[in-house]
Design brief:
Elements (H helix, E strand, L loop, with lengths): L4 H10 L2 E4 L11 E4 L3 E5 L12 E5 L5 E3 L5 E11 L2 E7 L1 H4 L3 E2 L12 E10 L3 E3 L4 E9 L34
Length: 178
């Protein structure tokens, strides 16, 4: 079961889900629009290593926006902190953004129950596209869960700004490359 727009409003008011900042103008019939935050990250190494942290370059969005280039992965973030201890959130790109040739989420649209924070966006353009901080970039839907709930307490909890991969944190210490 998916929450409708009026139920998203009700759940945000009574604390069953948290969206901060919240604006009723961003509520859709069955989702909530999230906006692109001001910070982007790109990886600086040509080859990314899943067994160690990878260096990144920080880009601060200005008034003129930033042009994303094909062949580059940009890590962005939502302006809003979104989470719930009761509902399963799923994030998707907005169709208007997809029609500009911009993928907003590569492989991880599902959020865990109990995660609260800004969502990292994996932005991949098919052609050069200018993006702006504050633009509506994606939408989050909320699904009712069934069964016992175990709250998320993982490595990305309380994220603020874009988060590079921390896959290496899940590895046994002997597998991590210095």
């Amino acid at each position: 079961m998916i929450l409708t727009g009026p139920e998203i409003i009700s759940a945000s008011r009574d604390g069953r889900l948290r969206i901060d900042p919240f604006s009723s103008s961003q509520v859709n019939p069955n989702s909530y629009n999230v906006r692109l935050g001001p910070t982007l990250l790109t990886y600086t190494d040509d080859v990314l290593d899943s067994h160690r942290p990878n260096p990144t370059h920080r880009i601060q969005g200005g008034e003129d926006g930033h042009i994303l280039q094909p062949g580059e992965l940009y890590l962005g973030h939502t302006m809003e902190e979104v989470g719930s201890d009761r509902f399963v959130p799923l994030l998707f790109g907005r169709s208007s953004v997809g029609r500009l040739g911009l993928f907003v989420e590569i492989t991880a649209p599902i959020g865990d129950i109990g995660f609260h924070g800004q969502w990292t966006l994996m932005l991949t353009p098919t052609r050069p596209v200018r993006v702006y901080a504050g633009m509506k970039i994606g939408q989050i839907m909320f699904f009712v869960s069934k069964g016992a709930i175990e709250l998320y307490s993982g490595k990305y909890q309380a994220s603020a700004g874009p988060q590079p991969s921390a896959y290496w944190r899940d590895l046994a210490p002997s597998a991590v490359t210095p």
